[in-house]
Specification:
Elements lengths: L1 H17 L1 H7 L7 E6 L6 H5 L6 E6 L13 H12 L4 E7 L3 H6 L9 H6 L4 H10 L5 H20 L3 H8 L4 E7 L6 E5 L4 E4 L24
Length: 226
């Protein structure tokens, strides 16, 4: 706790004064560039990975970067998506998984979660991805099977996103674009899903995509890496 409190003091004494104008501007409202949905894993820092400033990302985090399909039941992720898309009118939604994801490892082995009933229930939102990889990735090594599941899970959450009314409407009006990413903890690479060849590719060395002109996305779940 000492380190955390010392960090707050450093922010107040050193960082905040240098960015005071930005924070005063943000006090009057926000206009984020994207809704960024990622895992709660402590090794993931969206603002660090994307080198964005406060106010540029509307961030939602949970175990497994999951988006529950839309239902009449209110939940924190559902409410955040609704607000980001309908009120803040973000032009982009990024779902970002990551390598070595413990949540996906657990999703593939529900028996390991008997002591954690809420986690077990939450990860049922990834079971379609688990089944796809079971059917098509049986010959993969355990490491490659986990990576395939991590990628397939991101795509499945984009399918779930499409069931949310405001997301569906924004896509139909061509004002929202969905993006599937996987962050590699060990080397800092970001894999981006390519809708043309239905596979994830490293961002490095590739032409940067146009992110300011949303297009209707055709992403659908498909086994990747197998």
């Amino acid at each position: 706790m000492k380190k955390i409190l010392a960090g707050v003091r450093k922010f107040q004494n050193d960082v905040f004064p240098q960015r005071k104008d930005l924070f005063q501007k943000l006090a009057h409202g926000q206009q984020p560039r994207a809704l960024f949905i990622t895992c709660a894993d402590s090794r993931i820092d969206p603002s660090l990975i994307t080198q964005t400033d406060p106010g540029e990302l509307f961030i939602c985090r949970n175990a497994g970067n999951i988006v529950p399909p839309h239902t009449g039941q209110t939940g924190g992720i559902t409410a955040s998506i609704e607000y980001a898309v309908a009120a803040l009118e973000v032009p982009h939604v990024i779902v970002c998984g990551h390598t070595h994801c413990g949540a996906m490892g657990a999703a593939a082995n529900p028996a390991s979660l008997e002591r954690f009933p809420h986690v077990k229930n939450w990860l049922t939102h990834s079971q379609a991805a688990v089944r796809i990889v079971e059917q098509h990735g049986s010959e993969l090594s355990p490491e490659d099977r986990l990576q395939a599941l991590i990628e397939e899970n991101v795509l499945m959450q984009l399918v779930h996103l499409r069931t949310h009314p405001y997301v569906a409407a924004a896509l139909a009006n061509n004002r929202l674009q969905l993006h599937a990413w996987v962050y590699s903890i060990e080397d800092g690479e970001v894999l981006i899903y390519d809708e043309v060849d239905h596979a994830f590719h490293p961002m490095s060395g590739r032409q940067m995509p146009e992110l300011d002109k949303p297009q209707v996305s055709a992403i659908s779940p498909s086994v990747v890496g197998v």
